[in-house]
Amino acid sequence: MSGRAVATVVLCGAAFATLAGCSDTPAPAPATKTVTVPPTTSSSSVTPVTGSTSGGSPSSSTTVSRVFDPRTMQADVRKILTETYQVRDVGEVLCPANQTVKDGSTFTCTAQVGGEGKTVTITVTGDDGRYEVGAPS
């Protein structure tokens, strides 16, 4: 191949690379990860709660609902943020108490990341105590 042919190929390649970078298509948004957490077997993260009437005594049709243990969930969320999402400088994580184990329900925890409060969405993925931990926002 002649020197002129090589120069033409190089210039065409450079032009193509430049044009490929000038696409009208926006770059895709970064993918968000969700992590499904199985129920904890040691020091269970799910606690049974017995319903009662407003007088404080159990009703004749006592219902038992299960709720997540916020302390266990807070530790799990912190671990997932640091190990799976690789978020640095994760401080205190606070999750609300009395969150019912009900498939499809959602609630949020708050995590201190670099001294700033971030919201972490929790989505319950089954009645067995599994849940997804969303990326902090």
Automatic annotation (TrEMBL):
Q: Which ranges are annotated Low complexity under compositional bias?
A: 30-65
Q: Which domain of life is it from?
A: Bacteria
Q: Which residues form the DUF4333 domain?
A: 62-129
- Coiled-coil features, chain-numbered ranges: none
**Region listing for Disordered, in residue ranges:** 27-68
Q: Which residues form the signal peptide?
A: 1-20
User: Any idea which UniProt keywords this protein has?
Assistant: Signal
Q: What is this protein called?
A: DUF4333 domain-containing protein
The record lists the organism as Amycolatopsis regifaucium
The major lineage groups are: Bacteria, Bacillati, Actinomycetota, Actinomycetes, Pseudonocardiales
